[in-house]
Design goal:
CATH class: Mainly Alpha
Number of domains: 1
Number of helices: 17
CATH topology: Growth Hormone, Chain: A
Distance between the termini: 10 Å
Number of strands: 0
Mean pLDDT: 83
Structural class: mainly alpha
Order of helices and strands: HHHHHHHHHHHHHHHHH
CATH architecture: Up-down Bundle
Shape: globular
Oligomer: single chain
């Protein structure tokens, strides 16, 4: 059933069950956020494979996102979602057992493959059950609550690492991810909405790909690529090493900084639906990139904790404005029959950026310093803004395509 109201009470049970799955899955993922590159550096003191540890999360996803999106358009979302959460559990277990850099890379790759299936399917499900008017608020609230899990999990993970060791934190992740799996498997509403034969489509894979040929889709996917290039290259790799190796912050301080950034992300993500309805999706995304560029520029001159915490929070706001609105902008310009494929294509570009980001920015960091990496990131944000100028939202197109 398509939700046309804007209040949470109008949303079906499935919406809240997906929030429960997402909250525990994201919280589990975030437990290792503050120390992953530090753990990788411990396992590989040369630093040669540190970037690959972060990038492996995305490498396995590059080849599955688009096919999975098209398949989900034809057979429904449920099976792929459950498979995704199951693979995430396996990846967390491998990371917990990692006593070498290679096993850590393998665990991250398997875990990344699982999250690719999960995130693609849950995004498509939320878009499936909402109309254009309520979609921004529904996605914003959904993503905001998910990232509350990250806000809570990051400092907890840093705290646990000090007592049980880096690798053993992933056993806590495993427990949380298995809880998500139980909810997904037992959900009757998920089975009804995302697993029946009635979800099958008559069009071919070729027709699905043709339906994705649009300058607007290409531009949005490129923005997704550059956004993730920065997020993983800077804020999942270089930023933590900058705080630890150059500014000599403790692990607890790093966890607090990352958590505050997530707090800003949550605030912006929850409000982005309202803002995008009022000011337009594209304008909100552009504002997010401008904020991100300004924060990255400020990181080149700051060296004490209090102002860095403020900048982290504000940068999280910029990231949160982009995170939801860019995806909703994509859903506005594609036909519902190729929605899964469009999301898969979007996430494929995102994953390529996620894979290349840590490698590119670690190379810059190793060859120069963190300041050079931050300045390069500013330039990438300027490029994102320039790309968005090339496209305009096609107003009313989504409403005319609703089933």
């Amino acid at each position: 059933m398509l939700v046309r109201g804007t209040g949470l009470r109008s949303y079906p049970r499935l919406y809240f069950e997906m929030i429960a799955v997402g909250f525990t899955a994201i919280m589990g993922m975030s437990l290792g956020t503050s120390f992953l590159p530090i753990l990788a550096l411990d396992l590989d003191p040369s630093g040669a494979l540190v970037g690959l540890v972060v990038a492996a999360w995305f490498l396995s996803r590059v080849f599955i996102e688009l096919p999975a999106g098209i398949i989900s358009d034809r057979i429904g979302r449920r099976k792929l979602l459950i498979a995704g959460v199951g693979l995430s559990s396996m990846g967390a277990f491998l990371c917990a057992r990692a006593d070498s850099i290679y096993l850590l890379i393998l665990g991250r790759a398997v875990w990344g493959l699982g999250t690719a299936l999960y995130f693609m399917c849950n995004t498509a499900l939320i878009i499936d059950i909402t109309d254009a008017k309520s979609r921004g608020q529904a996605m914003g609230t959904f993503n905001g609550i998910e990232f509350i899990g990250s806000f809570v999990g990051t400092p907890i993970g840093a705290f646990l690492a000090g007592y049980v060791g880096y690798s053993n934190v992933y056993y806590f992740t495993l427990v949380l991810t298995l809880n998500s799996l139980i909810v997904a498997v037992t959900s009757k509403s998920l089975k009804a909405a995302g697993g029946g034969k009635e979800e099958r489509r008559d069009h071919s894979v070729r027709q699905s790909l043709i339906g994705l040929r649009s300058i607007g889709v290409v531009v949005i996917c490129m923005c997704s690529f550059f956004r993730m290039l920065l997020m993983q290259g800077i804020f999942s790799t270089v930023f933590e090493l900058h705080l630890k190796e150059e500014l000599l912050f403790s692990l607890t301080e790093i966890g607090f900084a990352m958590s505050l950034r997530t707090g800003g992300h949550i605030v912006a993500t929850i409000s982005s639906g309202y803002l995008s309805n009022r000011f337009g999706r594209r304008n909100v995304v552009m504002a997010g990139f401008v904020i991100d560029a300004a924060c990255l520029l400020s990181l080149t001159v700051m060296s004490t904790l209090p102002p860095l915490l403020v900048v982290g929070f504000v940068e999280g706001i910029g990231e949160g404005l982009v995170f939801t609105s860019l995806m909703v902008l994509l859903s506005d310009i594609v036909h519902p029959s190729v929605r899964g494929g469009a999301i898969g294509l979007f996430r494929t570009f995102q994953d390529i950026g996620g894979f290349l980001g840590p490698i590119v920015f670690m190379a810059v960091y190793s060859s120069f310093d963190s300041r050079a990496a931050f300045l390069l990131a500013v330039c990438v944000n300027v490029l994102n803004i320039s790309l968005l100028v090339l496209t305009r939202r096609t107003r009313g197109k989504e409403e005319s395509h609703e089933e």
